[in-house]
């Protein structure tokens, strides 16, 4: 009989705080770095591009090994602590010594840390609440994460305006310290580390040693057609999505003067505001079924791409970001849940997430390259339409090739009866 896990309120609240503090720590200083290096340190575009890209490259390279490490180690809280220390040291070093070797080295440290946070947080979440409560809990994680992004954006803006641009780096370092305190408050004994890697069910303590012998290998997971088609759909989604906001930013920068940064900030804030309630609702509705909700997230992307071609009015472009908030809010929740469903009982939950995120990173990078060439030769509207067409392909692959992963969706049986039967 499956036993539902009941972690303490202290651990669950600490998980909330962890998601708030890590909201701006996951990616380090992000877009603020390019502004600081250009405006305060007079770096040339090539140097700035190098500094920005090394972090992304490091994250892509490390994501799959990081997922495997999270699967293997029981010290998941310590991994988050070490990653947060990496981010803190990197940000402080950039703020104090903004020369090329230090910035490059710090960005590599931050990129490595960014690969550790997502699998470690989802593993701890699964180990705390179990599969039965994972949907709502992941929705709650994403809700607090987006709320933290909003708070961090406001604080960064205030710090940069009233203190100094480099104060933003110390703000991120302080938030990293907050994340360390939060994760240490999660009670270690309440985390089921076998469950956290996707092995078995809550309450199944027998034969754990035998399970160690039958964990599925990487090649065996990759041969699973469901995981393969899911990966293809998700990579195509990000291939279509990644370049859309940068292209909008370029359009906003044409003839808008200094207000372009204001409009870009508005795009980000509007999307984050929408993501907060959408993430929460996605987690709640996903308890009934996964696929219909995820289909909605896939469907809004081609619509968004087509809408961008209708007008270059900044207010219109900003308003279209509502759809970005819907898609991203759903994606952040449902991608984790479906990977958890696919890998249940394999012991490869986190390494599968890592492989998926690696593929997503490659797809997102190629998206910007393709969009840049298309826009240069044919204009913004053609670029948006090509991205929208790719999004339609992603929708089709997911719709026709990826099955529903929530067990018992078509059965009119109460959760209590399903629990008893298990």
Strand content: under 5%
Q: How would the global form be characterised?
A: globular
Radius of gyration: 21 Å
Assembly level: single chain
Q: Care to count the β-strands? A: 0
What summary fits the major beta sheet?
none
The CATH fourth-level homologous superfamily of the largest domain: MFS general substrate transporter like domains
The CATH architecture of the largest domain is Up-down Bundle
Low-confidence stretches: 202-216, 411-422
Instruction: Report the helical percentage.
Output: over 70%
Distance between the termini: 5 Å
**Mean pLDDT score:** 81
For the record, the count of structural domains works out to: 2
> What is the CATH T-level topology of the largest domain?
Growth Hormone, Chain: A
Number of discrete helical segments: 18
3D architecture notes:
- The protein is built from 18 helices and no strands.
- The protein has 422 residues and is mainly alpha-helical.
- Helix 1 (9-22) packs antiparallel against helix 5 and helix 11 (225-241) packs parallel to helix 16 (349-378).
- The model is unreliable at 202-216 and 411-422 (pLDDT under 50).
Features:
422 residues; 18 helices; disordered C terminus
Give the helix/strand layout.
Blueprint: H1 9-22, H2 31-39, H3 45-72, H4 76-96, H5 100-129, H6 134-162, H7 167-184, H8 193-196, H9 208-213, H10 218-222, H11 225-241, H12 244-253, H13 260-285, H14 291-307, H15 314-342, H16 349-378, H17 380-401, H18 415-421
Helix pairs in contact: 1-5, 1-6, 1-7, 2-3, 3-5, 3-16, 4-5, 4-7, 5-16, 6-7, 6-13, 6-15, 11-16, 11-17, 12-13, 13-15, 14-15, 14-17, 16-17
């Amino acid at each position: 009989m499956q036993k539902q896990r009941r972690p303490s309120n202290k651990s669950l609240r600490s998980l909330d705080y962890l998601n708030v503090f890590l909201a701006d720590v996951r990616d380090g200083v992000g877009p603020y770095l390019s502004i600081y290096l250009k405006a305060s340190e007079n770096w040339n575009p090539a140097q700035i591009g190098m500094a920005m890209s090394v972090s992304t490259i490091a994250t892509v390279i490390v994501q799959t090994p990081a997922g495997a490490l999270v699967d293997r180690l029981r010290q998941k809280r310590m991994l988050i602590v070490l990653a947060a220390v990496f981010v803190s040291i990197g940000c402080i070093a950039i703020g104090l010594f903004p020369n090329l070797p230090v910035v490059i080295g710090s960005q590599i440290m931050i990129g490595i840390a960014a690969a550790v946070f997502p699998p470690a947080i989802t593993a701890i979440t699964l180990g705390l609440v179990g599969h039965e409560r994972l949907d709502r809990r992941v929705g709650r994680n994403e809700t607090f994460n987006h709320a933290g992004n909003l708070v961090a954006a406001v604080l960064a803006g205030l710090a940069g305006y009233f203190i100094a641009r480099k104060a933003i780096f110390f703000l991120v370092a302080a938030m990293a310290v907050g994340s360390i305190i939060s994760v240490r408050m999660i009670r270690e004994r309440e985390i089921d580390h076998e469950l956290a890697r996707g092995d078995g069910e809550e309450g199944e303590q027998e034969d754990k040693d035998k399970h160690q012998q039958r964990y599925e290998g990487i090649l065996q997971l990759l041969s699973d057609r469901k995981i393969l088609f899911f990966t293809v759909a998700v990579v195509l989604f990000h291939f279509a999505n990644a370049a859309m906001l940068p292209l909008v930013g370029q359009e906003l920068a044409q003839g808008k003067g200094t207000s372009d940064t204001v409009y870009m900030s508005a795009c980000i804030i509007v999307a984050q505001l929408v993501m907060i309630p959408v993430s929460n609702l996605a987690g709640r509705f996903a308890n009934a079924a996964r696929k219909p909700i995820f289909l909605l997230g896939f469907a809004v992307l081609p619509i968004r791409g087509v809408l961008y071609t209708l007008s270059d009015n900044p207010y219109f472009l900003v308003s279209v970001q509502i759809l970005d908030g819907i898609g991203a809010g759903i994606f952040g929740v449902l991608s984790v849940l479906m990977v958890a469903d696919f890998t249940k009982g394999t012991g490869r939950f986190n390494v599968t997430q890592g492989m998926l995120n690696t593929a997503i990173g490659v797809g997102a990078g190629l998206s910007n390259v393709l969009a840049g060439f298309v826009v240069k030769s044919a204009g913004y509207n053609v670029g948006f339409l090509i991205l929208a067409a790719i999004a339609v392909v992603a929708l089709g692959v997911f719709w026709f090739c990826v099955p529903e992963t929530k067990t018992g969706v078509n059965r009119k049986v109460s959760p209590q009866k399903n629990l008893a039967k298990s």
